[in-house]
Amino acid sequence: MNKKLIALALAALPAAAMADVTLYGTLKGGFENVKDDGSKAVNNVADFGSRIGFKGNEDLGNGLKAIWQVETGLRLDAPNDGTGSSSGRLGSRNTFIGLQGDFGKVRLGNVSDYADSDMAIVNPWESEADALQLAIANTNTPLDTRLKNSVRYDSPKFAGFDFTLQYGVNEGRNLGYNPAENRDVKLVGLGYENGGLTAKYVYARWDYKNGAAVGELDNYYYQRVEAGYDFDFGLGLVGAYAQQNGKDVLNNKAKVREAALTATYGVGAFTPKFSYGHGFDSKVNGEDLNNSGYKQYIVGVDYALSKRTTAGVSYGKLDYDTAVNEAGVPDQRAFGVQLIHKF
Asked: What residue range is the signal peptide (predicted)?
């Protein structure tokens, strides 16, 4: 009887009371064989950033909406709490409240930066191993993440152009707060889309208000540009260039530059893809740090099992120059099988 009463009560609710809430998510996992030079190969069942979320809106009239989202990370490989991962904590991913209208969109909370939400078109790979994701949009970037204490504005599109402004306040507060980590982040993103052409640019600057420790970067900025074109016959090409400049509290300056190119080709349900990444020699106080770059190759193919489920395989090599190896960072080879489902 109680079940029938509950069902009757739910059926009596106004449709509008439930229609603005959406449950969504992505489950991404696979099997990887990873070998660092000088070590034995390791087999892993890996998670690639699975998530579940709720989002919705309320019509406030005159074209204005209140918008909200609560997104939580999941781990298919279920790490214990000692890993430091925030996955499984409610709101660990994009979680915000905001307003949307003809003026654009404003969000306040834990919000993806522009590189994470709108870029990385050069990096179509899903993996846990470094060798299976382009370093330019993964291990070597301070972006492609979320600013946990931020406000973000996204403009409407104007003739294919749009822009984003984001300000992250006291970002270290969520990293095990300590006054030395009082970091502010200022970010600008620019985009253009027209037919098969897509171009994206991001500029971000970090400033530690109380200063960083000696030997660590006190303030720095990061830039990345990506441009791609999808041809009518299925070929897609994307190129990217990134540069990071910074200085420590002793005014020592450093510069890191890298580039990448990705090609994809759709053939029915199959999408073969290839990426090449290149890290140039770093500069310290204007002088080249010889043999401090890297070369990266990834090849693979995706197969669309349905509109929402994709399987894939990939193989990657990440070869560092000798100065990086001598600093204790080994080259890596990896093979992976991926399975992704969106709901």
From this structure: 1-19
User: At residue 155, what are phi and psi to the nearest 5 degrees?
Assistant: -80, 160
**CA-based angle 267:271:274, to the nearest 5?**
125
The residue ranges of the chain whose pLDDT is under 50 are: 1-3, 5-10, 12-13, 15-18, 81-84, 177, 213-215
Per-residue pLDDT at 10: 42
Question: What is the value of pTM for the model shown?
Answer: 0.86
Look at the block and give the residue holding tokens 């070590």: 39
Strands (DSSP E) found in 87-216 = 95-101, 104-112, 146-154, 161-168, 183-194, 197-208
Outline where DSSP puts E strands in the chain: 21-36, 42-47, 51-61, 64-73, 95-101, 104-112, 146-154, 161-168, 183-194, 197-208, 217-230, 235-248, 253-265, 270-279, 283-284, 287-288, 294-304, 309-320, 332-342
Give pLDDT, residue 178. Answer: 55
Domain ranges for the chain, please list them: 2-342
Q: What angle do CA 296, 302, 305 make, to 5 degrees?
A: 160
Residue 3's pLDDT is: 47
Q: Which residue has the tokens 């059926």?
A: 11
Alpha-carbon distances, residue 147 vs 96, 111, 112, 174, 322 (angstroms): 11, 6, 6, 10, 34
At 288, list the tokens: 């080249």
> Residue 315: what pLDDT?
98
60-78: per-residue pLDDT in tens? 999 999 999 999 998 887 7
When the candidates are 3.20.20.70, 1.10.3720.10, 1.10.10.10, 2.40.160.10, the CATH number that belongs to 2-342 is 2.40.160.10
Instruction: Report the chain's terminal Cα–Cα distance, integer Å.
Output: 33
